[in-house]
Amino acid sequence: MEKESGFLYDPNKKELLGTILPQILRDLTLHGECTIPVDAANIINLKLFPTLQDPPFVCEYQVPVAIRDLRALLENSEWDLALQQIVPFIDGVRYVKRISLEADVEIAIVKKCVRQLLYYGCVTLIDIFLHSNSYANTPKIAVLANDPRLQAECAVYIARSGSAPPSFARIFALYCSVQPSLRMSDFSVVYSESLALIDARRFITFGLIHGFLRRVHRYPIYVDHSSSPQQQKQQGQQTLQQNQQQQQKGRPFGLSSTSPLLSGMNPIGAAPLSIQPNGASNALNANIISGSSGATGGNVASMSSSKRAMVSKASQLEKDLLRMMDGSHHTDNICTKFLLRYADVESTIQMNPNCCAVHK
User: Fold this and answer.
1) For the region Disordered, what residue ranges are annotated (predicted)?
2) 63-126, what's its fold?
3) What backbone torsions phi and psi does residue 204 show, to the nearest 5 degrees?
């Protein structure tokens, strides 16, 4: 305006500032935006944008859940190509690492994309849903009891497909019945009649999104008792005796072929067993393990290099797994880190006398 018409230097136009500036202040204060015509050729358009907080860092075991229609946003705006690649995989079930594997996008890029969606309020993050999970109520459950709009939204969201929404009295009674000592598998059995018309996964998801449920995580702890030289020597002698016994039985190492880590390992090294096509990984594991357990030579040198590598990899995996059991990593973190099933990690905890777990 100044270059085109000399607005500030023209005394007649400069007088308009006394009217324009108070109007800008008033409109921005009341409405957050203003549209003020100055003359036939110029209009002042201003808008205030809120300062958003930095989103939290995204972990590979977290599950992004869309709270806005992401597909509609993609159609109405030009988003980053990486975002367009991963949005179809955000379904409230897949965790970040699984999205990375299935979308064939680097994990660091997926985390950045999800964090960007968090920043603009398009998604929220919850935990992986398993029937072995435990949950607890939070004080925010009072909000559900006092908000009729949220009650109606909850009934529609958690209802099974094709079923009528359950009554709020039943829904609230179920939420109040959630206990840290009751796993979801047991909860589904105890309250099977009340859950007949309710999707258990969406029931938990809605509670996590709105904050009146929280996940009770299981933190494995491995205590190494071989700190003294004498204990290390005793442990070494025991390991040597076990290896000799295994060799006499026709097995090359002390690691059993039925070890949960060996049976749960993914030989392809690309994706968890649950997402391998046609169960190929299970068949491959079965063939390798059966071949290993059927060996009769009793000599390490007689083993093929692939079998030795498989056992060596399982042994290293067990060491890395125990090293991560320091009380600061929960089971979701460990499972996604090593692409193991929860049952395999739990078996390792139960079979190792130096392992325990705490819940918090």
Assistant:
1) 225-256
2) Arc Repressor Mutant, subunit A (1.10.10)
3) -70, -40
The pTM of this model reads 0.69
Q: Which residues of 244-256 are buried (b: 16+ CB within 10 A; e: fewer)?
A: eebbeeebbbbbb
Could you tell me where the DSSP H helices lie in 193-279? 200-210, 229-248, 260-264
> Which two three-digit tokens encode residue 246?
């295994």
How many other β-carbons are positioned within 10 Å of the β-carbon of residue 228?
Answer: 9
- Residues lower than pLDDT 50 in the chain: 232, 243, 246-258, 264-297
What does the alpha-carbon distance between residue 285 and residue 81 come to, in Å, rounded to a whole number?
Answer: 37
Euclidean distance between CA atoms 112 and 57, whole angstroms: 9
pLDDT of residue 73: 80
- Nearest CA to 257 among 268, 267, 246, 269? 246
| pLDDT for the residue 314 | 83
d(CA 275, CA 272): 6
What number of other Cβ atoms are within 10 A of residue 181's Cβ?
9
CA distances from 142 to 136, 138, 159, 213, 342 (A): 14, 9, 21, 11, 33
Q: What are phi and psi of 65, to 5 degrees?
A: -120, 125
Neighbours of 13 (CB within 10 A): 15
User: What is the DSSP code string of 81-143?
Assistant: HHHHHHGGG-SSSS-HHHHHHHHT--HHHHHHHHHHHHHTTSEEEEPPP-TT-EEEE-TTHHH
